[in-house]
Amino acid sequence: MIEELRRTFADLVFPPSCVQCAGLCEGRALRHVCERCATLMRPVEAPHCRTCGHPFFGIVDGERDCPHCEGLRPVFREGRVLTLYRGAALALVQELKYHRGLFVLEDIATMVRGFPYFASFLAGAVLVPVPLHPRKERERGYNQSVLLAETFALAAGGATSVAALLKRVEDGQSQTTFDRKSRRERLKNAFALAEGADINPSLRYILVDDVFTTGSTLNSCARVLRRAGALSLDVVTFGHG
């Protein structure tokens, strides 16, 4: 209660600015996204692709191919995303990844709590962050996927937990410049089981990353967990690019 009063007073004196448009954020559930930008963000609901979570627009009758994960051949069961990676959602992730903006995690937690469709998917699972190579993590100072997994777990509540079961063993350059086929080839042996990691086949595991682009990174991580004995395995991301 004291912390909430302190924050409310601070917001009145120094209203936070929107990460997207730099406008003032006053009286909004999200402290760092203004009303105009927040209305343009849409949580992803059904119907959506079961593999990557991207929404299907319009009327869907029966099975439908998804161009966003074409040719992926997932080794995980299902994918879910919180929102599309555009506008304020993109700004939140970029603030977290590239500008040390840990304050955006508060808004991300609020988004998860306010969207039961996503939160219920997380409930009771073991969330496994996609790892960064140690060099990359030292440069950034943290792994944003770990912070997202911890935020998701707190927002989902209950028995939801976080376990760092994977490590990145290949120090490759950013995958954003490569096409789908190149990404998959480059990531085949990029990940391994972390030292001391214990996989319980009776538990449900969910891989966590910031953005689903081609799914190559998530699928490579999923393959490691499958080989280690994970029988129930899904993936979630904050955004879909």
Write the layout of secondary structure elements.
Elements: H1 2-13, H2 35-39, E1 79-84, H3 87-98, H4 104-113, H5 116-122, E2 126-129, H6 134-140, H7 144-156, E3 161-162, E4 166-168, H8 180-186, E5 191-193, E6 204-212, H9 216-227, E7 232-240
Parallel strand pairs: 1-7, 2-3, 2-6, 6-7
Antiparallel strand pairs: 4-5
Helix pairs in contact: 4-7
Number of helices: 9
How do the helices and strands follow one another from N- to C-terminus? HHEHHHEHHEEHEEHE
Helix content: 25-40%
Strand percentage? 5-15%
Q: Can you tell me the residue ranges where pLDDT is under 50 for at least 5 consecutive residues?
A: none
* E-strand count: 7
Strand order of the largest sheet: 1-7-6-2-3
Cα-based radius of gyration, to the nearest Å: 18 Å
- Tell me, rounded to a whole number, the average pLDDT: 89
Largest pleated sheet: 5 strands, parallel
Structural class: alpha/beta
Task: Characterize the structure shown.
The chain has 9 helices and 7 strands. With 241 residues, the chain is an alpha/beta fold. The strands form 2 sheets. It has a 5-stranded parallel β-sheet with strand order 1-7-6-2-3, sandwiched between helices. Strand 6 (204-212), helix 9 (216-227) and strand 7 (232-240) form a beta-alpha-beta unit. The model has no long low-confidence stretch (mean pLDDT 89).
Keywords:
5-stranded parallel sheet, alpha/beta, globular, 9 helices, two-stranded antiparallel ribbon, 241 residues
